[in-house]
Amino acid sequence: MTMKRSTPLWLPATEALELMQVRPQTLYASVSRGRIRAKPDAADPRRSLYHRDDVQRIAARARGRRSVETVATEAIQWGEPVLASAVSTVAEGRLLYRGQDACVLAEQAALEDVAGLLWESTPPRFPASAASAASGNAPLQAGLLALAARAATDLPSRGRSRSVLQAEAASAIGALADAMLGTTPAAREMPLHMRLATAWRRPRAADDLRRALVLLADHELNASTFAARVTASTGASMAACLLTGLSTLTGPLHGGASAAVQALMHRASDIGAEAAVREWLAHDRPLAAFGHPLYPGGDARCGALLANIELPPAFEELRGIGERLLGEAANIDFALAALAAVHRLPPGAALTLFALSRTVGWTAHVLEQQATGQLIRPRARYTGPMPGAAEEISEPRFPARARRPSSSRG
């Protein structure tokens, strides 16, 4: 019996071009737009390899083999763009905020400066409340409760001016910082990175925290941003949109990924880095610290954040082993875990940092979504049972009541 050889995961340019039936320029354009993942060929660094699944997907589309339903399904799985946005994008390995390189901005800018850029306004301040006090809850729990309280009382965002919504967002972000960090009199007028450094009693970490806040402020149409935009499309309050984003961010495949990196580091300290990585992979656990579909050549944010940080030997060893065994570069989750370790930040600090930063991006997307006035309401591709052709629809069990006209669109 002849065994059919499977196609390798990474293809050379000749095979990719043969599958796609296009010119080399078209292949390179697909890579630069993030549609096809690429990485250097270990055997010849001058050449690149291209991800098989991406190549096959685009080749199938070119041959007209995909239905509209298939296109729509794949669009939300690292596929084609599904919403127009001028806020941010990843292009040619760079993260751009309204056309400006986020890594360049991180060298000098504060989060407030980036908020002004993304919101198209003067740089806001995120005011601390003189009346706020520590709640005794964990930072994440306190933050969720603070936004939920505002979401229950704040006005809907629909029909209100951009400037009013910007002021409301700044106030909500300030309240979130109060809840997650606590407030001291000296912190009320500080930029957010200084508030973090003060609350965590890590003054030497201030500049690295500033960098991290800038680099995490937005990242195109990620899961939490898309969730916030869906909420915004209904006209919900700004606080409700931020609450949706924060709730989505807490997932282990999103903002919670740095916790998995820290768990891997703890395991590495027990049994060694290589043994920990191999054990992790043997149990089919993805390594959150490595690789990113939008950065075939390596996560630019990781390099920018680690530029001024001297990695501890344990992290340096883990990075080398992980990149060798996986063939993928370290990413922003690795960098956040390293930042927390270098400055001995409190437990949960990486997620707190991520959450407070990303509120700026969510706000920019909420403002953009409100300007469209459109409801985001996709259709589902139903896969459940259907009544048989000869089956009659039974009478309702209860008498139908008069129905009022509804403005709901489902």
CATH superfamily of the largest domain: Citrate Synthase, domain 1
Q: What order do the strands of the largest sheet run in, or round the barrel if closed?
A: 1-3-2
CATH class of the largest domain equals Mainly Alpha
State the secondary-structure class: mainly alpha
Poorly predicted tracts of residues: 1-5
Number of helices: 18
Q: Describe the biggest sheet?
A: 3 strands, antiparallel
The CATH architecture assignment of the largest domain turns out to be Orthogonal Bundle
Using only C-alpha atoms, the radius of gyration works out to: 24 Å
Arithmetic mean of pLDDT: 85
- N→C terminal distance: 55 Å
Structure description:
The chain has 410 residues and is mostly helical. It folds into two domains: 10-76; 88-375, Citrate Synthase, domain 1. It is 50% helix and 6% strand. It contains 18 helices and six strands. The protein has helices spanning 13-20, 24-32, 52-62, 68-75, 102-105, 111-119, 139-151, 162-181, 192-199, 206-215, 223-233, 238-249, 257-271, 273-282, 300-306, 313-326, 332-342, 349-372, and strands at residues 10-12, 38-41, 44-51, 88-91, 94-97, 100-101. The chain has a three-stranded antiparallel sheet. Strands 4-5-6 form a three-stranded antiparallel sheet. A hairpin with a 2-residue loop joins β4 (88-91) and β5 (94-97). α7 runs antiparallel to α12 and α11 (223-233) runs antiparallel to α12 (238-249). Belongs to the citrate synthase family. GO terms for molecular function: acyltransferase activity, acyl groups converted into alkyl on transfer. One of its GO terms (biological process) is carbohydrate metabolic process. Keywords: Transferase. Pfam families: Citrate_synt.
